[in-house]
Amino acid sequence: MKPNARNKNASKYLKLLAVGLLLLSVLTGCQNESSPPEPESPSQSHDTTPVDDNNATTPADDNNINEGPLPEATDKLLLYIDPARITTMEQAIAIFEDRFPDVDVEIHDFEGNQQDGDMGWTDRFTYTETLQDDLLVGNGPDLITFDVNDFLDINKTIMHTDLFFDMEPLMQADPDFTHDDYVQSAFDAGMLHGRRLYVPLNYMMFVFFTTEESLERNNLTLGSRPGFEELMEQMGIYCEAGEAGGERRLFHMPLGMDMMFPFSGMELLDYENYAVKVAGDDFRMIMEAFKRVYETDKNTTPAFEAAHDEEARMHLDQRTLFTYHTGSNSFVGTYSAVSSVETPVWFPFPTQSGTPVAHNIDLAAIRNNTPNVRNAYEFLKILLEEEMQNAAGIPWHPLNIAALRAKPFYYSENHTDSYGASFDGMPLTKVPDEVLNELVELALGAKALQTFIPRYVRDIIYEEMTPFFKGNQDYEECLASLENRLLIYIGE
């Protein structure tokens, strides 16, 4: 790996401060007649003409990635290292440099890469702020890695900017790339208006976990795969009976709108047609169901302690009715620790269609005006390989199907091998293969929404519907106010 190239010129950030404010305006859809025009959208001719002096490139000589109809490779690749993905990116860089030794990989990291591997939120903020500032003025990394929440609204980012390069022509021209190697629903969520502007690296699928004994203690009854109404009815009974509160709770973390949307499977906004979809019976059913659990959920203190080990302990100490899991790691850990004492009950968060929802988390895109398209594309392919998809303990479901099928089994073996017969006083039991297979099949069949539901939109829903949840205002009044705010938001 080449030496790190940290930007130590503080004046750059002062100069870009105003530009950063413009980016926030662009990403929230705000219009400002005095704002300077966006950088001219470059044609996607895949030429290697340098765009800026800092990332000037020349075609690489004798480089085997020049084969075939794909764009010509250059001798440079610029990457920013996200503090949340240090280990994964370093592994991928080592693979890339081994395969393509003639390419000079320039690394920009951030001061948060502590020696012990911990990440500070301040460091992550610096990364996202710098990334946004640089992208707005046509600079930045050749391959962009980011969390879906790093942009205020990824849908508006795509609609109102030309930041991202269409990768689908590259994949179609690449004889070594096969779309069928990936979970198609999650993969194709990056296809917008016929263009593949980003690729998800992994995704969430919410799974609820409880035990037969816990349900019996609370006089609750759930089928093996409960529907949404059945689940919310039982949760409502639990909360209204006053069983939750204090040390006991409905979940180990607050439910809020983060689970209802997107995991109910309901599309709320149509960005293309500037339409809001909250007036129907489906949305009302969700709001009325949430009203029954609102007070308990609002008073829930997040349990940030020891990840799934704490979640298992909360079950065994009867301090929660459910825990929820977004990937195979925490599910395996909780199942292993609880199953030797009580009988697990688990199921995907139910949707109105009956199909679990996949929610893409880590994304990758190629900068639209980079001359190093080919190198960025080859690096992306490394991130999508089975080995990398299972690297660094990433907790969510891999996009690569081979990795998805292998990961829970690998983690299950590693979990019991690492901790032995018990952990923190909890006996560990190997998770049965049939359970892991069922988890894999559910994840393979999960369906991603075509548009993300930004956290800001979920906050608007929570704010506008809270008077209804509290019983202070009727549903129609709250809905009218919500619909008006969402229409203003999507039309900005």
Summarize the structure.
The chain is α+β, with helices and mostly antiparallel strands and 492 residues long. The protein is 43% helix and 12% strand.
Describe this structure in words.
- By secondary structure, the chain is of the alpha+beta class.
- The chain has 2 domains: 60-203 and 358-441, D-Maltodextrin-Binding Protein, domain 2, CATH 3.40.190.10; 204-356 and 449-491, Periplasmic binding protein-like II (D-Maltodextrin-Binding Protein, domain 2, 3-Layer(aba) Sandwich).
- It is 43% helix and 12% strand.
- It contains 18 helices and 18 strands.
- A 4-stranded mixed sheet has the order 15-7-13-18. Strands 3-14-6 form a 3-stranded antiparallel sheet.
- Strand 16 and strand 17 (426-427) form a beta hairpin.
- The longest helix is centred in the last third of the chain and has 19 residues, at 401-419.
- The model is unreliable at 1-64 and 113-121 (pLDDT under 50).
Multimeric state of these chains? single chain
Please report the number of helical segments. 18
CATH class of the largest domain: Alpha Beta
What's the gyration radius in Å? 24 Å
Major β-sheet strand ordering:
15-7-13-18
Major sheet, described briefly? 4 strands, mixed
The CATH architecture term of the largest domain is: 3-Layer(aba) Sandwich
Q: Report how far apart the termini are.
A: 44 Å
Q: How helical, in percent, are the residues? A: 40-55%
Mean pLDDT: 80
* Structural class based on helices, strands and sheet pairing: alpha+beta
Fourth-tier CATH superfamily name of the largest domain: Periplasmic binding protein-like II
Query: What count of structural domains?
Result: 2
Which regions are unreliable across 5 or more consecutive residues at pLDDT < 50? Answer: 1-64, 113-121
CATH topology of the largest domain: D-Maltodextrin-Binding Protein, domain 2
Q: Total strand count, please?
A: 18
Q: How much β-strand is present in the residues?
A: 5-15%
From the spread of the alpha carbons, the general shape counts as globular
